[in-house]
UniProtKB/TrEMBL annotation:
Pathway as given in its UniProt record: Purine metabolism; ppGpp biosynthesis; ppGpp from GTP: step 1/2
Residue span, RelA/SpoT domain: 56-179
Pfam families associated with the record: RelA_SpoT
Record's protein name: GTP pyrophosphokinase
UniProt key word Lipoprotein: no
Gene Ontology biological-process annotations: guanosine tetraphosphate biosynthetic process
Length: 241
């Protein structure tokens, strides 16, 4: 016996827990493939990549237990699966706010993804200034003997939103959640500046985009680069010789 358990009971528990956690890892593997395809395809078609970087994490057992106690949940695997939807988490960072909604729509458009919850903290920031788009989705994963639908939390944010959130997170933990008022006020101001920066950068990028697109078309069509359309084909498409 170890504690209240026999060795066999402990073995069974360990195997069950490993199977449980593996499902979340597989869900992240599936999402990793999906996100990579979206990135590559978008880059190929639009000559531009809306995703700056992506982080994947499976919540540690300690952190899952913390949440079980914090939310006063029943300590069982079915209850954890039902109530804790962020065991598998993805954070996607983009340059611009419009990229966030583009990525969100691309993910929502995939047939095997079901969005079960969506929180838009960009349109409606949290009182402390936190901004991000949160989705809880479910995707199927196929294992040797069964198919399971696994929830995944996806946070999509700009670089500025991410910068703010990671600093706020550090401050929160440094002060053990008792952050002095003056710091809370400064954080709120920083969140406003970050939001203004997002708007400014996107405006600049849009202006640059107009010139870039014009230049790209000229390069492709007039200068006859490798990918340029042959004039004969262009002529026949437009009924001109
Ligand atoms: P971790 O370690 O990042 O996973 P929930 O507790 O998830 O059931 P809640 O709070 O309604 O319910 O979920 P919400 O609002 O979607 O937020 C979940 C996650 O968003 C948090 O996960 C944080 O990662 C992030 N987040 C939300 N609000 C803030 C904020 O004010 N500041 C920062 N820095 N991050 C925030 P966890 O579980 O708290 O932690």
């Amino acid at each position: 016996m170890i504690g209240d358990f026999t060795l066999n009971e402990l073995r069974t528990l360990k195997a069950e827990l490993t199977r449980f956690m593996m499902a979340y890892k597989f869900a992240l593997d599936e999402m990793n493939t999906k996100i990579n395809i979206l990135k590559e395809e978008f880059q190929y078609i639009h000559d531009y990549n809306p995703i700056e970087h992506v982080k994947y994490r499976v919540k540690t057992p300690e952190s899952i237990l913390d949440k079980v106690y914090r939310k006063n949940l029943e300590l069982s695997l079915p209850s954890i699966k039902e109530n804790i939807k962020d065991i598998a988490g993805i954070r996607i960072t983009c340059s611009f706010i419009t990229d966030i909604y583009k990525i969100c729509d691309m993910l929502k458009g995939q047939k095997d993804i079901t969005v079960i919850e969506s929180k838009d903290y960009i349109k409606k920031p949290k009182p402390n200034g936190y901004r991000s788009l949160h989705l809880i989705i479910e995707i199927p994963i196929f294992m040797s003997d069964r198919e399971e639908r696994i929830p995944v939390e996806i946070q999509i944010r700009t670089i500025a939103m991410d910068f703010w959130a990671s600093l706020e997170h550090k401050i929160f933990y440094k002060y053990n959640k008792e952050v002095p008022d003056h710091l809370l006020k400064e954080l709120k101001e920083a969140a406003t500046s970050a939001a203004e920066l997002d708007v400014k950068m996107e405006k600049l990028n849009n202006e640059m985009g107009v010139y870039k697109e014009k230049g790209r078309l000229e390069d492709e069509l007039v200068l006859g680069q490798q990918s340029a359309l042959p004039y004969k084909l262009l002529g026949s498409l437009t009924n001109r010789d």
